[in-house]
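Postdoc handover notes: sequence design on the structure in folder B. Input tokens:
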């Protein structure tokens, strides 16, 4: 039997994930009182034997009972259940934005600043995060991208590495990427903008991609960047980091940065980590 506990930060996507799992045939229960988890497990395993996949939503709404989760998880061993814990995380900045968009109150703050409630919640959930089997940071994920990751883990049964890389191209003229962990300036490369037949195209087009990549400096840069990331990522993982945002910038965010972002994403896809690419400014001033 597969038994999944879906938990994490409020606003990080727990309800969406439970819906995805339900659509995939999982028996799903959200916000079940924690003391009832062993009883539900016993019922599913020994009485309702048609259920082979179950998912429970557990979060800060359980209040003080949340502290009992450690003991409850240990109790499940007597039913020969090995629970998988999926922890959904997101940055405070993104969570605040989501709360403002939905105009909902944070469970720990009925009135007052949302960010204070988020930090309180993050601290109280730290013990669960340490026990997590899977950690997914949804800060830069679209719903369809989150679904792809959920399908990999819980439907296709693929190996999942708790580290996700976002490669984002951008233009310095529109402002530096504020949430990047690493930023690389590729304005040292020749600019296709000044080639009349390439000016209105982007790094998504083969002719622009080939133009940029034909320069030896582009290949040399990618080799050095790949080597550095292969060194950094394992050390970031050791320190508990589970997401890396890499910004690749050029003047307008349409030619060189898009090309290099595509090229490094292709190389990183061979490293067994989750990788996605985003072009922040490629459609601006079209």
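Designed sequence:
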């Amino acid at each position: 039997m597969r038994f999944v506990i879906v938990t994490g930060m409020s606003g990080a996507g727990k309800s969406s994930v439970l819906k995805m799992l339900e659509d995939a045939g999982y028996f799903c229960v959200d916000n079940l009182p924690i003391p009832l988890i062993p009883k539900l497990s016993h019922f599913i395993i020994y009485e309702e034997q048609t259920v082979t996949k179950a998912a429970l939503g557990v979060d800060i709404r359980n209040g003080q009972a949340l502290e009992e989760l450690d003991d409850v998880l240990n109790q499940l061993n007597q039913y020969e259940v090995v629970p998988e814990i999926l922890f959904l995380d997101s940055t405070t900045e993104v969570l605040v934005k989501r709360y403002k968009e939905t105009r909902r109150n944070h469970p720990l703050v009925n009135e007052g600043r949302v960010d204070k409630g988020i930090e309180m919640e993050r601290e109280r959930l730290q013990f669960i995060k340490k026990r997590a089997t899977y950690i997914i940071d949804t800060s830069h994920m679209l719903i369809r991208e989150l679904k792809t990751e959920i399908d990999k883990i819980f439907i296709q049964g693929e190996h999942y590495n708790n580290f996700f890389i976002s490669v984002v191209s951008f233009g310095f003229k529109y402002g530096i990427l504020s949430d990047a962990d690493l930023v690389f300036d590729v304005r040292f490369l020749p600019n296709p903008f000044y080639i009349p037949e390439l000016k209105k195209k982007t790094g998504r087009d083969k002719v622009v991609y080939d133009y940029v990549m034909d320069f030896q400096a582009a290949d040399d840069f990618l080799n050095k960047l790949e080597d550095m990331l292969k060194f950094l990522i394992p050390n970031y993982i050791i320190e508990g980091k589970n997401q890396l945002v890499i910004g690749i910038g050029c003047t307008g965010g349409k030619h060189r940065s898009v090309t290099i972002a595509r090229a490094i994403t292709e190389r990183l896809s061979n490293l067994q980590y989750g990788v996605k690419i985003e072009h922040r400014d490629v459609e601006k001033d079209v």
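Context for whoever picks this up: The radius of gyration is 22 Å. Don't rerun without checking with the PI first.
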